[in-house]
Each structure stands twice: as C-alpha cells, then as structure tokens.
Amino acid sequence: MSTRPAPRGTTTPRLDVERLRADFPILERRVHGKPLAYLDNAATSQKPRQVIEAVERCYREYNSNIHRGVHTLSMEATAEYEAARGRIRQFIGAASDREIVFTRGTTEAINLVAQSWARSRLKAGDEILITTMEHHSNIVPWQMVCAQTGAKLKVAPIDGRGELIMEEFTRLLSPATRLVAVAHVSNALGTINPVAELARLAKQHGALVLVDGAQAVPHLPVDVRELGCDFYAFSGHKLFGPTGIGVLWGREALLEDMPPWQGGGDMIKAVTFERTVYNDLPHKFEAGTPDISGAIGLGAAVQYVQAAGLDAIAAWEHELLHYATGAALTVRGLRIIGTAPEKCGVLSFVLDFIHPHDLGTILDHEGVAVRTGHHCAMPVMDRFGIPATARASFAFYNTRAEVDRLISGIEKAREVFA
Amino acid sequence: MFDVKDLYQEIIVDHNRSPRNFGALADADRTLEGYNPLCGDRLNLYLKLDGGRIADLRFDGSGCAISVASASLMTEAMKGRSIDEAKQLFESFHALVTGNRAAADASQLGKLAALAGVRDYPARVKCATLCWHTLNSALAGAHTPVSTE
Description:
Chain A is α/β, with parallel strands linked by helices. Chain A folds into two domains: about 15-30 and about 310-415, Alpha-Beta Complex (Aspartate Aminotransferase, domain 1), CATH 3.90.1150; about 50-305, Type I PLP-dependent aspartate aminotransferase-like (Major domain) (Aspartate Aminotransferase, domain 2, 3-Layer(aba) Sandwich), CATH 3.40.640. Chain A has helices at about 15-20, 50-60, 70-90, 105-120, 140-150, 165-170, 195-205, 225, 250-255, 290-310, 310-330, 355-365, 380-385, 400-415; strands at about 30, 35, 35-40, 100-105, 125-130, 150-155, 175-185, 210, 230-235, 245-250, 270, 275-280, 335, 345-350, 370, 370-375, 390-395. In chain A, α2 (about 50-60) packs antiparallel against α10 (about 290-310) and α12 (about 355-365) packs across α14. Chain A starts with 16 loop residues before the first helix and ends with a helix. Chain B is α+β, with helices and mostly antiparallel strands. Chain B has a single domain (about 5-145), classed as Sufe protein. Chain: A (Alpha-Beta Complex), CATH 3.90.1010.10. Chain B contains six helices and four strands; from the N terminus they run ααβββααααβ. In chain B, α4 runs antiparallel to α6 (about 125-140). Chains A and B meet through α12 of A and α1 and α2 of B.
C-alpha cells in the first residue's frame, strides 16, 4: 500500500466497514464519555466476537489437554488445535502443517530461531544483517546470540523517508552474512520493505532470511513461498486474535535440522534417563501444554480476516491512510515521521507545540487512543533525532470519522497549549 | 470525569513554555542526569551547594510538559532550602502526585500544588517525579544517572 491513490482493481470488492465494526463489541465502548476511536492497532488489535466466541466455546464445550487423552474432549481439543494450524498454513501459503510452529508471539518466534538455529550454527566471523527500522524484538535476540557465538550484528541504514537504503543493504551483504532479519512492515514508520527483493539479494550470498511479519499479516496478503524467505514470524494479537499466541513459519528442511529449543512434554517421542527421542515437526518446538484456546482463537481470527478479504482490507486501509495523511498535513506544526512511498496504515508524527505524551493524554480525553513513545524502536527515534512520536495506526474497522476526531483532538491540544 | 485542564493548568503550560532556571550552571558542584526510558524524557540537573543549603539549582534537557513544568517549579521552590528541608519537600510533593493527600503538606507546596492533577493519571506520575528523584539522588551524592525504570 502506498500513499498514492489506491489502484482500483476491478475484482477487489469494497469493504463494508460498518457491518464489520458491528462484530467488535469493544468498539461500542465510551472513554471519558466519548465514543472510543481506537487508533492503536499497531500495538494490538481488537477482537471480533467470532474470536471471543471461539475461545469461549473451547472452555465451555471441550476444554482438555491435546495430543494426550483417548477421551472425547481431548480428541476434540486436539482436532480444533490442529485445524487452527491448518488454517494458518493456508493463510500464509506454507507447504505443510509441519512448518507451522505455535509460539507465544513474534518475539518468542524470533528467539526460537536465534537460540535454535543461530546459536547452534554461528561462530566468530559470521554476520547477521538487520535494519535500522527493526522493533527491539528483532534486535535484542540477535545481540544475545552474537554475544553467545562471537558473530557480528550489522545494521543497514534507512533514509529520511524511513526507507531502507538498498545500496547500503547490498553493500553490507557478503559471504560472511549468514542471516538477514528484517521487518516486513515497520511498526514505528509504516514502511513496507521489499522483502522478496531483499531475500533474493541475501540468497546470492547464501544467507537465510527471517521476516518479522507482525505488522504485515493484519494488513497485506502474505505468501511466504512467494516472498522467498526462510522464516516468517507473527503474532496473533495484532491479527485480531488472542494475546499470548503467535506463529513461526520455517522451511521444513531447516526446522528438521534445528535442535529443539525448550525441552518438556509434547516435544518428545520417548524419554529414558539415557536417551530422549524428540518428536516430529512441529511438535519438536512446542514443549509443554501450549496456549490451546489461543491457537483456536487465532484460527478463528484468520478465518475472519479471510472472509473479509485481505485485498479489500488493504485497499480500504490504503484509502484511510491517504485520507489521514492529507488531513495531518493541514495541521500547522505537524511533521510526519515515515513518508516512504510504500506504506501501511501507520501515521507517526511530532508537533512543534506539544510533546507526544501530552498529546496522548489530551487525545485520550477525547476518546481517541493513540500510542506515544519510542514504539520499541529506539534506533528509529535516534535516526530521526527525536525522543518519541505520537502514532495513529489503523485497522480495517477504522473510519474517516475517527480520523477527523484525531485531527480535531490535535487542534484541541493546540488550544490547551496555545 | 476529569477535565484535561485540571491537569494542564495555566501555570503548568506557562512553565513548560518558559521554563525557569533553564540552562547549565557553569560552577555546579553536582550534575546529574535523569532519564525516563519509557518516554525518552531526559533532564540534566545542576546543583550548587553552600554550607548545607541549595545555593543554586538549574536544569536543561527535553521532556513532556509535565516533566518540564515540574522541573521548573522544583528549581524555584528548592533554591535557598537546606538539604533537610529539600527532603521534606520531596516527600510532600511525592505524596501530592501519588494521591496521598494526608501526607501532602499544602502549606509547604505553594505553586507546586498545580501538579496535583497528575494523581489522576497513573501513566504520568513518573513524568512529574523524574526531576525530583534526580535531585534527591544528587543531594545524596550519587553520580550515576537516575532512571525511572
């Protein structure tokens, strides 16, 4: 999606935003006496009743542990849990259910690759290449594994619009590069990275590619095989699913070769004190009782998003971002941080008359929820020489009227501070 | 329901726009940094002591209106006080912004009472207290930067 007018595909149906909004009970809430305008979707998204009901049904009707019992409830729970895995496999275009590992979220998925793949393979002289726009969760796990292995962390810079500088990225790639770890969409700036092209370049040097897809899967159609990456990580809670559940997709041959990360129940076939035989994929990476209801809720979320249609979602969010960007540019003293031509629905900005935190408090009084701060991307703030931004981030259920309330909230802040 | 103007009173807006005692103090005895990593507020405090009294106190840095106004009002309120008085005022101010009305000595607080509205905003209490914790540490002779986290 870009800030240019949306391409008008003949086959993309228009999203019925009002009908979809009715599925989200929380959107009826009032905050400080005003209707909630929830514009903090990059932090977490709201849940449709289809997801809430799927989680509730799990606990009301068939709650049981999975992969264990011969009793009816356990078989039902196992079937629902594995059906959710299948839905997610299909959602991201993976080749097999064995490639879908449930984790606690994107952070745990990245840590899994760092501690299983990278820690067991990297050594001094090897390099991991990331970018300036990464979320802390795609920086710190690599710093940790570099300290453990002697590998080096390299950082590809971004330009003043928040776009990756391709020449610099290419220059930093070398035969020493073992892994490229990059965000599909930047949480702080909204920039969409050309992941397929980055993967193609990385492959020329034999490097693997991990994509942090946390901010992409709720907004864009994603096909992991088309992207040509090796690992793809995302969270359920940003995708209208529950918190505490996420996914690591990895190529089967790679996952097969990787040592388990955590040991425990469910990840083994046989245990004696002399020798333990690990379970097959993906269970090898799912030690202990997983977040069963969370996985089932995420399966329901994926179904919901697919029914709404990701092409239609992307088109509407594009339109909304275009509208919001235009409206923001009419505000005196407002500077948008992140103006890449290819952008998702993130509007990060600073104002010359008010600090983001004061703005956040005043907007909250207007019922408008935005994030203020460094967005877990401190190097991005350093790059732009600012301590913090205010960030409005959109989901498909947001409306132009909510954008208008954001803008009038900013004008109200001007009155307080004028 | 709170009115946002209870938080952003005229005096706070004024001290944010024109902070008093702003800028480095060339002959400071002690300089200490206060940092709130959650929001990026960063203040430097410059302290000059004279026989157990705060002879001069200045600050610079950047932060939200609450943290800048609090620092500005604090430097005004603290000048000339003994270290013991400064500690008492710290306790009283802390009680004020955390909603402990009984322990907040209104007679001592003066203009600082304008920051009372912060107690209704738990997420903002650290903004108001950053400079105060920094001063407290500086008076205790600390050299390592103060962090709210």
